[in-house]
Amino acid sequence: xxxxxxxxxxxxxxxxxxxxxxxxAVVADTLGGTADHSPVxxxxxxxxASMLEWAQRVGDALPFDFEQCHDNPALLGxxxxxxxxxxIFVDTPGSLEDESILQTVLTQAxxxxxxxxxxxxxxxxxxxxxxxxxDPSGVPWxxxxxxxxxxxxxxxxxxxxxxVRARGWPSFHTVIRHYKLHTRASAEGVTVVQYSKNRTAxxxxxxxxxxALEVLGTGGAPRHAGPDNGLSNSxxxxxxxxxxxxxxxxxxxxxx
Length: 256
Ligand SMILES: Nc1ncnc2c1ncn2[C@@H]1O[C@H](COP(=O)(O)OP(=O)(O)OP(=O)(O)O)[C@@H](O)[C@H]1O
Ligand SMILES: [Mg+2]
Prior knowledge:
Blueprint: E1 3-7, H1 16-31, E2 40-44, H2 50-58, E3 65-68, H3 73-76, E4 87-91, H4 99-106, E5 111-116, H5 123-134, E6 141-148, H6 155-166, E7 176-177, H7 180-188, H8 199-217
Parallel strand pairs: 1-4, 1-5, 2-3, 2-4, 5-6, 6-7
The structure holds adenosine-5'-triphosphate and magnesium ion.
C-alpha cells in the first residue's frame, strides 16, 4: 500500500507545487522503476493545474506517474486505495475557496508537509491553515521552510524558526534554499533530477534529497493500513479525471 504524502498550505505561492514535483522526482529517481511503472505517483488536486502544466512540459522524462484529479471529490477520497505505488505525493490548492478539496485529501494522508516561506508576512495564513484544517485532521504534519535565500542572511530564517518553535510546531530539519533553477524549472520542463551537473545544481538537488530522507525515514506502515479490499488495479486505466463514463482511473476498482 502506498504512503500518501500531502503538501498543503492555503497560502498561495509558498512552494507547494515546487516541493511536490521535486520531492516526487527525487524519490522516484532514487527508488528506480521501469519505463512502464514508477514506484511514485504525483497527484495534483489544484484546479489551477500548475503541476499538470509542469508535468506536460517535462513529458516522457518525468520520473513519476502523474494524475490531475481536482474535479472528482469522490475519487480524491479514495487515494489510499491505490495499490501499485510505494509513495503518492499530492499537491493541493493555495486558496481558501478550495478547502473542501484539502479536507477530502487529508482523509487519505499518511503525513502532511506544510511549506512555509521564511518571511513574516507568510505566517498568519499558514497558521490559519494549520489550526483550522491540518492539525484537526489528526494526520501527522511538519512545517518545511522553503525558498530561503542565504544571500539575504539568517535573520528572517531565525525569526521563522523562532515562530515555529514558539508554537510547538513540528518541523523538518532540512531547509529548501532559493535557487533560480527551481524558479525556472517549470517553464523549462525539468525537475530537480534533470538539472545539469554543475555545483549549483548539485546543491539545489541536495536539499530535496535531504528532505526525501526525512520524509521517507519516518513512519513505518501506512497510517491507513487496513484489510485488502480487493481494490488493486494493476491493469487499470490511468486517468482519474471525471470523464463521465465511470472511469475511475488509478483509483478504480479494476474489476470488470
Ligand atoms: N526553493 C525555491 N527556489 C526558487 N523558487 C522557488 C522555490 N520555491 C518556490 N519557488 C517559486 O515560487 C513561486 C511559487 O511556488 P509554487 O508555485 O511552487 O507555490 P504554490 O504554493 O504551489 O503556489 P499556489 O498556491 O499558487 O499553488 C514559483 O515561481 C516557484 O518557482
Ligand atoms: Mg501550486
